[in-house]
């Protein structure tokens, strides 16, 4: 049976991770799919998760229901968390109806292969799974575009508001601190006026990258608007957040940016910091307190970090 190629535009074949400890099954499926997919083999759930770490672009995870020490459905639940763009397929000789209905309803399983299978049907199911993977990737790319600032590639204002709401609820629920910093590039209008808006955009992007270099991977850095940025710092207390903010400010003060045909530009920032619950009890209060501190920093001469006063 002739099916559409599983290779991408660069000629790279899609990766399919097969998880099964039965060598006869592994050999049969490898022979069936090797001409269409780059087939990775794991004999257990831990081995499968390790291979996923090494191959995050894996398009399909195909597992037997009976694995050493674990059921295939449990493995697919882990795959769903680790690599949600990978299509999840299950091979089984019998169907526990209630388990399968729940798995399908929660999209833990996209495709079900019953033993014994018919080869052409099996291949069709895998190509349909690959089509689902392409759809999931496209949807994810569109979602990322919708929350990404096109100039700096940071998260945008919409994403910032959603993240702050979620982190505020989590912090209040677990009685954990939550800090945020509002950052504004000093006299940015002068940069635009002197060098032009294209260079101004380069400065925005360079400042964004410098901020990212100074924060943790779990922190959210967003372009709040214009020349203003925001950093959400989960589980960071006020003192810790002030240290991060000062590190950002100092890094920008100490290092100029160099651009082709323009030369060097120094961009300093003013920063306001606030923490929940020290200074606020809601997301909007936190923004207001950080913003007030930012404007105090600008009013006191710019290029400085100012923390909110306790409520």
Explain this structure:
By secondary structure, this protein is of the alpha/beta class. The protein has two domains: 15-146, Rossmann fold (3-Layer(aba) Sandwich), CATH 3.40.50; 157-307, 2-Layer Sandwich (Alpha-Beta Plaits). It contains ten helices and 14 strands. It has helices at residues 23-33, 45-54, 72-82, 97-105, 119-146, 157-174, 188-195, 197-214, 238-254, 283-299, and strands spanning 15-19, 38-42, 60-64, 66-67, 70-71, 87-92, 111-114, 178-185, 220-225, 228-234, 257-259, 263-265, 269-276, 305-307. The chain has a five-stranded parallel beta sheet with strand order 2-1-3-6-7, sandwiched between helices. A hairpin with a 3-residue loop joins strand 11 (257-259) and strand 12 (263-265).
The structural class is alpha/beta
Q: What portion of residues belong to β-strands?
A: 15-25%
CATH architecture of the largest domain, by name, is: 2-Layer Sandwich
The number of E-state strands comes to 14
Number of helices: 10
Strand order of the largest sheet: 2-1-3-6-7
Distance between the termini: 71 Å
CATH class of the largest domain: Alpha Beta
Task: Report low-confidence residues grouped into runs of 5 or more.
Answer: none
Instruction: Give the % helix.
Output: 40-55%
The rounded Rg comes to 26 Å
By CATH's scheme, which homologous superfamily of the largest domain applies? Answer: Reverse transcriptase/Diguanylate cyclase domain
CATH topology of the largest domain: Alpha-Beta Plaits
């Amino acid at each position: 049976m002739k099916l559409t190629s599983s290779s991408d535009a660069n000629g790279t074949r899609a990766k399919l991770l097969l998880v099964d400890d039965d060598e006869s099954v592994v050999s049969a499926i490898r022979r069936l799919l090797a001409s269409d997919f780059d087939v990775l083999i794991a004999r257990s759930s831990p081995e499968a998760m390790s291979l996923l770490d090494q191959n995050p672009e894996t398009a399909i995870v195909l597992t037997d229901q009976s694995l050493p020490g674990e059921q295939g459905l449990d493995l697919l639940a882990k795959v769903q968390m680790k690599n949600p763009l990978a299509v999840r397929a299950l091979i089984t000789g019998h169907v526990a109806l209630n388990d399968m209905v729940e798995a399908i309803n929660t999209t833990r399983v996209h495709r079900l292969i019953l033993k014994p299978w018919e080869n052409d049907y099996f291949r069709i199911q895998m190509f349909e799974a690959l089509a689902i993977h392409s759809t999931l990737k496209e949807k994810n790319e569109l979602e990322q575009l919708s929350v990404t600032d096109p100039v700096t590639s940071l998260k945008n204002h919409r994403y910032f508001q959603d993240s702050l709401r979620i982190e505020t609820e989590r912090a209040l629920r677990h009685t954990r601190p939550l800090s945020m910093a509002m950052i504004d590039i000093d006299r940015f209008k002068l940069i635009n006026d002197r060098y032009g808006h294209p260079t101004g955009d380069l400065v925005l992007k360079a400042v964004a990258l410098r901020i990212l270099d100074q924060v943790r991977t779990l922190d959210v850095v967003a372009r709040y608007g214009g020349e203003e940025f925001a950093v959400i710092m989960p589980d960071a207390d006020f003192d810790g957040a002030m240290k991060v903010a000062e590190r950002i400010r100092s890094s920008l003060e100490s290092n100029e940016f160099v651009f082709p045909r323009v030369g060097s530009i120094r961009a300093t920032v003013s920063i306001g910091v606030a923490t929940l619950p020290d200074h606020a009890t809601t997301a909007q209060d936190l923004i207001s307190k950080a913003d007030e501190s930012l404007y105090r920093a600008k009013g006191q001469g710019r290029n400085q970090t100012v923390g909110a006063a306790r409520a």
